[in-house]
């Protein structure tokens, strides 16, 4: 697992349940998958953990994360600093694009801030794969507060070749 059966995969506008691949997932990761994938990456992601970001659920090509805005995350206007919203969306993107058995990094990312958020707001980010072609991918993340969309993010990924031993 970890690599698509096709060179290109397209994800429809769908939630996590619809975005899951149909092929069976092995119950235990092999040696190459043990230190790779979203879980391994997040286990070592001190920045996201320090901010209280939680990974609610994830699978190959999709993820959902949560974060509560704290006082330290606000700017001089008493709204959430855009850098924290970007980091939150970027973490969700990383969870979606890091398949077991591979190491994937961002090659770029853009965000549109649509509404402000405030201390105490509980934010949810949902990311999904739009297309994966070879070692490159495009992922969209929507950040919400309740039913309100506060930001949209588009991330571009690149899967690194295996490390030489």
Broad structural category = alpha+beta
Give the uncertain stretches in residue-range form: 1-33
Q: N-to-C terminal Cα separation, in Å?
A: 22 Å
DSSP helical segment count: 5
Shape: globular
- The average pLDDT score comes to 83
**Multimerization state:** single chain
Q: Which range does the strand content fall in? A: 35-45%
Q: Sketch the major β-sheet.
A: 7 strands, antiparallel
Strand count: 7
Evaluate the radius of gyration.
Answer: 16 Å
Note the run of SSEs as H and E: EHHHHEEHEEEE
Percent of residues in helices: 10-25%
Folded structure, characterized:
The protein has 165 residues and is of the alpha+beta class. Helix content is 22%, strand content 36%. The chain has five helices and seven strands, in the order βααααββαββββ. It has helices spanning 16-19, 31-34, 37-43, 46-50, 82-97; strands at residues 8-10, 54-59, 62-68, 104-113, 122-133, 136-145, 148-159. Strands 1, 2, 3, 4, 5, 6 and 7 form a seven-stranded antiparallel β-sheet that branches. A hairpin with a 2-residue loop joins strand 5 (122-133) and strand 6 (136-145). Helix 3 packs across helix 5 (82-97). The chain is globular. Residues 1-33 have low confidence and may be disordered.
